[in-house]
Design a protein that fits this description.
Layout (H helix, E strand, L loop, with lengths): L1 H9 L2 H18 L5 H13 L10 E3 L3 E3 L2 H11 L3 H13 L3 H4 L4 H7 L2 H12 L4 H8 L6 H10 L5 H13 L1 H11 L3 H4 L12 H18 L4 H15 L4 H23 L5 H4 L2 H29 L20 H13 L6 H29 L1
Antiparallel strand pairs: 1-2
């Protein structure tokens, strides 16, 4: 009977708090449908790794001895040792993306770059709050609005806060429908949000679609070599989509591979959500900085669009600048929904999609540049 009570008596208040965090993530996934493929396994994993005297993480159990936990093994192999899971996920993401709206409107590349402002704001904020350079840079990359990039950067820079960073990145990605409208309204007027934009897609040939992922990989590999793994796998996935001769592989990458890796990645990240390393003041600070990063990403993109409008005869809706973050396709959908609400029948989705896929590339390049810059200082 005493043995049966060992688990209950071993629970700490920090673990109880993490059970609450796990249940909250599951509730957001199921009830609110905020990125359920990510938040549900993360939430359930947070409960698993905080159950005492279990075999999901490495522990010494009475009467059994040393137990090698499956979640810790997945973390060591798939994230800690090789960053394999977040990198492989990019094949699926690349296969899902249609770069046509971006290629037909090259100016949208600028919005992807402008919407990375939150990264550098967050790095400065984290530094001022007392985090060292590697941790500050890892926290700042939450502003990339890209979970795999956040995990990869924090792992390569050996940040102590991988779990908190991953949770912040994925949580705020899921909360884009709440965060972005608030930030957009802060810096726009109703008249600006009602601006209509005519979509005139240019002719994007098949040759251009095939050449694009190859050229981008080569250019990024020379400019920001530390990001070539993410960009290369992203562009490889896109090449599968666009080549026209590997439909089965493209379909597998978009669905089977992406879903499987997302499932494994979500539950594996939970290893970093153990109460002994997660429940501390630094975690709350990271969550706050991450929120600011997302807000300033959005504001940076919107203000850049407003700046361009000073020189344009035909004005653009500045909300498309907000879609320059990497949260694809959620951000583009949010912008379109806001445009419809402000002016029924206003369609700016394809412009927003162009900015959104640009943000996907820009966030990965920004991550590689930050790794290179920080490494040069160490």
């Amino acid at each position: 009977m005493e043995f049966l009570l060992d688990g209950i008596l071993s629970v700490t208040w920090q673990q109880l708090l993490m059970y609450g965090v796990g249940i909250l993530l599951i509730w957001l996934a199921v009830k609110k449908e905020y990125e359920p493929a990510l938040l549900l396994p993360m939430g359930f994993g947070a409960i698993l790794v905080n159950l005492p005297l279990t075999g999901v993480i490495n522990q010494t159990l009475s009467g059994v001895g040393e137990v090698n936990g499956i979640i810790e093994w997945l973390f060591d192999v798939g994230i800690e040792a090789s960053e394999a899971l977040p990198i492989l996920l990019f094949i699926g993401i690349g296969a899902m993306i249609d770069f046509g709206p971006l290629l037909s409107q090259p100016v949208m590349f600028l919005f992807g770059a402008a919407a990375q402002f939150g990264i550098f704001f967050a790095i400065c904020a984290a530094t001022l709050m007392g985090f060292d350079l590697t941790d500050a840079a890892s926290i700042g990359i939450i502003g990339a609005a890209d979970g795999p990039t956040s995990i990869l950067v924090s792992q390569i820079l050996h940040s102590k806060y991988v779990g908190a960073i991953a949770v912040a990145a994925y949580s705020y990605m899921a909360l884009v429908p709440i965060v972005q409208p608030f930030a957009i309204r802060l810096v726009t007027t109703k008249k600006e949000r009602q601006i209509s934009m005519e979509y005139k897609p240019g002719n994007v040939s098949k040759s251009m679609r095939i050449a694009f992922p190859i050229v981008v990989t080569m250019i990024v590999g020379m400019i920001a070599p530390m990001s070539v793994a993410l960009v290369g796998f992203l562009m490889f996935g896109n090449l599968l989509r666009e080549c026209g001769v590997l439909e089965n592989l493209s379909d597998t990458a978009q669905h089977t591979l992406a879903n499987l890796i997302t499932l494994l990645l979500g539950i594996t990240i939970s290893f970093s959500m153990r109460a002994d390393v997660f429940v501390e003041m630094d975690t709350l600070m990271i969550m706050a900085i991450g929120l600011l990063a997302f807000v300033f990403d959005t504001i940076g993109g919107v203000l850049f669009a407003k700046f361009l409008n000073l020189f344009l005869k035909v004005k653009m809706n500045p909300m498309i600048g907000a879609a320059g973050i990497s949260a694809f396709p959620m951000s583009a959908r949010v912008v379109q929904k806001m445009a419809q609400k402000e002016k029924p029948g206003n369609i700016i989705l394809m412009h927003a999609v162009g900015a959104n896929v640009s943000g996907q590339i820009a966030s990965v390049v920004a991550g590689g540049l930050i790794i290179s810059l920080v490494s040069s200082f160490l």
